[in-house]
Amino acid sequence: MPKPPTSRSSDAFRPVMPGSPVPGSRISVPHQVQAGQILRGQVPVGSTVWVDGQAVAVDAEGRFEHPVPINARRELAVRIQRPSTQVRAPMTIRVQITH
Fold this sequence. Notes:
By secondary structure, the chain is mainly beta. It is built from no helices and nine strands. Strands 3-9-8-5-6 form a five-stranded mixed β-sheet, with no helix packed on it. The protein is elongated and about 45 Å long. 12% of the residues are buried.
């Protein structure tokens, strides 16, 4: 029987059951944003974020913001590289722009 994945907490590893939240590991990006507004999201601390190829600052708590131009096209590509001791491919989330 495989062992459950582990999570780093206070320099000790604890088992994490599938579907259980891991503090600081969640990604929150809206599915849509209105043109002229600010896209706000949350990623794991230490992640790198790009919006349509442009690097976006991520604060010490994993939050980021990106202004959406009033004349923006139909969607934004939000690319997220999560921090990890293992090599993980970046993930891309498509955010629809409403007018």
